[in-house]
Design goal:
about 250 residues; Rossmann fold; seven-stranded parallel sheet; globular
């Protein structure tokens, strides 16, 4: 029984990929998982994966881009578990289109989910954590929000750069309530989101040539860093954006 035993961890976008890996990693540490996703079937798979090995988890279907849906989800979590100790904002979308062709709906939806969604959950959960006497928040960003942009991803890049700024301000404001806030910025990770691009041999060659470790990341690589950030070993860490990318960006 470790330090996360019976801690309640809310992971958004937990239905697959990085979100599922984070949820499973915390469950393996004996945490209680409040798993969120907008897609019920993916969420059911995550809950099954966790409970089949003896973990505690319950799914909450909600669109994090909506204030009322976030608040309703949080009320359900509090009814079920009584608290939220850790929030991981992982839910995200990534439309592919050149700037001159990008549809306004895709632009707005990307900012709504990736940036506004993180704001809404941080605000609602942050109030709960303040009343509890503390907590930890990790936002899942991207190296696209650092010094490395992505071609044909204007909305995604803008949302992830905004998320880093939001993280820093939240960390500054919430420190007095014993709430730490950080961003983890993954590089190229083997998930469903990159599956199609990974079929392109030329693309894979370019990716690998830019990564000193010579491989793509795994969702578990991100999960392990999130676990560390939320642990007591990282008690003096807040307001940071941490690249987890095999050395692609060194800053």
């Amino acid at each position: 029984m470790g330090e996360f035993s019976d801690k309640v961890v809310l992971v958004t976008g937990a239905g697959r990929g990085i979100g599922r890996a984070i949820a499973e990693a915390f469950a393996a540490e004996s945490a209680v998982i409040a798993a969120n996703d907008i897609t019920p079937i993916n969420l059911d798979d995550t809950i099954t994966h966790i409970t089949e090995v003896g973990g505690k988890a319950k799914g909450y279907v909600a669109d994090v881009a909506g204030k009322m849906s976030v608040q309703t989800m949080l009320e359900e979590i509090l009814d079920d578990w009584g608290r939220v100790d850790i929030l991981v904002n992982n839910a995200g979308v990534e439309p592919h289109a050149p700037l001159l062709e990008l549809d306004e709906w895709d632009w707005r939806r990307t900012l709504d989910v990736n940036l506004t969604g993180a704001f809404l959950t941080m605000q609602s959960v942050g109030r709960v954590m303040r009343a509890q006497g503390g907590g930890c928040i990790v936002n899942i960003g991207s190296i696209a929000g650092r010094a490395h942009g992505l071609k044909d991803r204007a909305a995604y890049v803008a949302s992830k750069m905004g998320l880093i700024g939001l993280t820093r301000e939240a960390a500054r404001e919430l420190a007095e309530y014993n709430i730490r806030v950080n961003t983890v910025c993954p590089g190229v990770i083997k998930t469903e989101m990159t599956a199609e691009l990974r079929q392109n041999e030329a693309m894979m060659a370019r990716w690998l040539a830019d990564i000193p470790q010579g491989r793509l990341g795994k969702p578990e690589d991100i999960a392990r860093v999130v676990i560390f950030i939320c642990s007591g070993s990282a008690a003096f860490l807040t307001g940071q954006a941490i690249n987890v990318d095999g050395g692609k960006i060194m800053c």
